[in-house]
């Protein structure tokens, strides 16, 4: 089968194409309404289908001969633990935990927040929620109580599931006090908080809503799968937008299952029974799609790795995992490979392991820079696939479709649009740009199955955030171009979102936090190039008149504020005092211009600038402070 014909079919006959893909899944009732449009023109996939995602991902495989196949391999270099859970064992655990939730009143449509480290119980909790037809919202463990509280308040969960601690290399991070603080901060209070006690730190169970996981499981009766509609939500996953309030991306059951099942073969070239390892975290979309649902829906074995690419214990960790578990496809962020390369530039650790099981390394979360691409390709002699996607889409918008036809790769490009995604480059007025011209990367509607249906509780924000700029298109927020051969190049965000070690963060949110400091009159946060993490945030701050504060003290206080509010994961480690910031005459800080200076791009000074002299001044400061990328990048 050729990529071109598959892609063409998906664009010309979407309903027929996706009905065929939906056939690969065990529905309770196969949908008749494949693709429908409501009165407002919004698209829906598989609306009248009946199904249960946990059934499709677990029970179905047990019923069809995979009961004894490993479903989850757990490997934790930080606790020296390893284990294997078969599909049968996973089914038992999921059904029991669903019973625990059911006994606490969780029913179809209720929300359950999961705040857990990388352990099997995180996956068991997610699947148990799905089994009941309820909606999970997993929050990444690196987020601070304030972030967790914002999500609790928005999702209004009946239950929170957590663990006593997570382990970060050598640090034990106690989760329970963070959860307690978040619940105290949130106006919404859950009925119950289920805590898995880990031996590295035991949580204090002082609240009347606290329930011990192990005790509850011992008393539980297994619960069955609840049928849901194709358009019923499976989960809410919060992601950073341009403001301080994160966006709750809503994923529906039907489209999600169909898209992920299809992607496992079309993009990742996996067969049921193969071992797939996404070295991410269940708190991110990569973890949702390719640690949990994608591999399990496809009958593969997935890997839960509680460790880092380096320091747990060394830069050979990934290669050791590949050898030990015969991993066929490895998926990680480019940052992980930059970290490995930094510690082991000759890849001498690689020589210690047999990685012959591995056929492809997939990377996403941020742009795969050509040097990292070339290093990984040369050292491993494997196919390297850069693929572009977002929390919103849930699966790859562009990729080298390894299971359809491997295309020659071009470093710096995420290859071609995945079947179903009609990718266009638009100018600010919404006109399609010719090859080689940079513009806004947009996707012509309808998007394929699996993409976000709305923002939780805020359909207007969904429309204004994604559909308003270019009517008839989804606006991705990324800039880029398509070359003469049709290869797509994603060059970076066009808004105030940055990518730090493959983690998506809002500079707007950091600005709101540091602006609260007494000494600060005005501030902005920009992403500057970082050779390891891709980008790191830096605050440019203006002091209030008459304020005298030592710059180091101020910086330390601002770092502490961001760590407290967002968490260590923000990697906010630098603040620079500046005499003024370039602004428009109406007083808006010219963030895009600052982004362009930092990225060493051609600077476009808008005619609305208040004082043109402020540009040269800030440019000189940023140069002197080392905030400008040494390498010039293409304009956006
Ligand atoms: N819970 C609590 N804290 C966490 C955390 C978690 N789950 N994950 C990270 N943190 C903390 C870290 O301990 C660190 O804290 P510190 O500032 O007190 O040291 C901070 O957040 C930053 O973490 P990280 O970005 O992971 O930096 P690092 O220096 O510890 O590690 C890398 C560097 C490159 C090894 C690491 O960033 C990495 O593995 N990157 C790959 C990213 C990835 O997989 N992304 C998923 C998207 S696909
Ligand atoms: P997230 O929603 O956290 O997955 O982040 C999505 C954003 O990460 C995208 O909008 C891009 O800016 C960036 N991104 C992810 N994958 C890639 C990639 N392969 N190439 C370029 N940018 C990427």
Automatic annotation (TrEMBL):
Keywords: Ligase. Its EC number is 6.2.1.1. It holds the Pfam family AMP-binding. One of its GO terms (molecular function) is acetate-CoA ligase activity. Residues 3-57 form the Acetyl-coenzyme A synthetase N-terminal domain. This is Acetate--CoA ligase. Residues 509-588 form the AMP-binding enzyme C-terminal domain. InterPro entries: ACAS_N, AMP-bd_C, AMP-bd_C_sf, AMP-binding_CS, AMP-dep_synth/lig_dom, ANL_N_sf. Residues 65-444 form the AMP-dependent synthetase/ligase domain.
């Amino acid at each position: 089968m050729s990529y071109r014909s598959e892609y063409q079919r998906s664009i010309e006959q979407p309903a027929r194409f996706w009905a065929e893909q939906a056939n690969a899944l065990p529905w309770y009732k196969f949908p008749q309404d494949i693709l429908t449009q409501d009165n407002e023109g919004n698209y829906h996939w598989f609306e009248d289908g009946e199904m249960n995602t946990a059934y499709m991902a677990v029970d179905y495989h047990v019923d069809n001969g995979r009961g004894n196949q490993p479903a989850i391999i757990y490997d934790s270099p930080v606790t020296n633990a390893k284990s294997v859970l078969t599909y049968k064992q996973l089914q038992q655990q999921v059904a029991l935990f669903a019973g625990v939730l059911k006994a606490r009143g969780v029913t179809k449509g209720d929300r359950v927040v999961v705040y857990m480290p990388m352990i099997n119980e995180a996956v068991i909790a997610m699947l148990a929620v799905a089994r009941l037809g309820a909606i999970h919202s997993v929050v990444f463990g690196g987020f601070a109580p304030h972030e967790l509280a914002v999500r609790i308040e928005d999702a209004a969960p009946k239950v929170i599931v957590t663990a006593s601690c997570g382990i970060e290399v050598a640090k034990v991070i106690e989760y329970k006090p963070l959860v307690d603080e978040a619940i105290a901060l949130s106006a919404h209070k859950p009925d119950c908080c289920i805590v898995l006690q880990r031996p590295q730190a035991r949580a204090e169970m002082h609240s009347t809503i606290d329930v011990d996981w192990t005790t509850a499981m011992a008393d539980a009766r297994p619960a069955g799968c609840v049928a849901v509609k194709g358009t019923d939500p499976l989960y809410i996953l919060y992601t950073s937008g341009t403001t301080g309030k994160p966006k709750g991306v809503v994923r529906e059951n039907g489209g999600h299952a169909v898209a992920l099942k299809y992607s496992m073969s079309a993009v990742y070239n996996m067969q049921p029974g193969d071992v797939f390892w996404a070295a991410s975290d269940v708190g991110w979309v990569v973890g949702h799609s390719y640690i949990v649902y994608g591999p399990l829906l496809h009958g593969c074995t997935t890997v839960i790795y509680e460790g880092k690419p380096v320091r747990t214990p060394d830069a050979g960790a990934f290669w050791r995992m590949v050898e030990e578990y015969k991993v066929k496809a490895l998926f990680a962020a480019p940052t992980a490979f930059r970290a490995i390369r930094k510690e082991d530039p000759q890849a001498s650790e690689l020589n210690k392991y047999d990685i012959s099981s591995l056929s492809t390394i997939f990377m996403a979360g941020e742009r795969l820079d050509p040097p990292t691409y070339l290093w990984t390709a040369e050292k491993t002699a494997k196919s390297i696939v850069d693929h572009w996607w977002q929390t919103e889409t849930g699966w790859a918008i562009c990729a080298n479709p390894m299971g359809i036809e491997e295309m020659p790769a071009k470093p710096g490009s995420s290859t071609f649009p995945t079947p179903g995604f009609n990718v266009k480059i638009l100018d600010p007025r919404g006109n399609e740009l010719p090859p080689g011209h940079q513009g806004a990367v947009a996707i012509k509607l309808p998007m394929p199955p699996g993409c976000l249906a709305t923002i939780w509780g805020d359909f207007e924000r969904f429309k204004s955030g994604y559909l308003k700029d270019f009517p008839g298109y989804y606006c991705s927020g990324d800039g880029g171009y398509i070359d003469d051969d049709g290869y797509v190049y994603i060059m970076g965000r066009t808004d105030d979102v940055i990518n730090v070690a493959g983690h998506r963060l809002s500079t707007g949110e950091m600005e709101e936090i540091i602006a609260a400091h007494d000494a600060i009159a005005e501030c902005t946060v920009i992403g500057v190039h970082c050779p390891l993490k891709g980008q790191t945030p830096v605050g440019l701050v203006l002091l209030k008149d008459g304020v005298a504060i030592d710059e180091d003290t101020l910086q330390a206080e601002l770092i502490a504020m961001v760590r407290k509010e967002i968490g260590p994961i923000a990697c906010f480690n630098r603040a620079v005092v500046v005499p003024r910031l370039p602004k428009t005459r109406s007083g808006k800080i010219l963030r895009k211009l600052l982004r362009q200076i930092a990225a060493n791009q051609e600077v476009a000074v808008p005619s609305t600038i208040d004082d043109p002299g402020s540009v040269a001044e800030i440019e000189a400061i940023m140069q002197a402070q080392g905030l400008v990328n040494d390498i010039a990048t293409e304009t956006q």
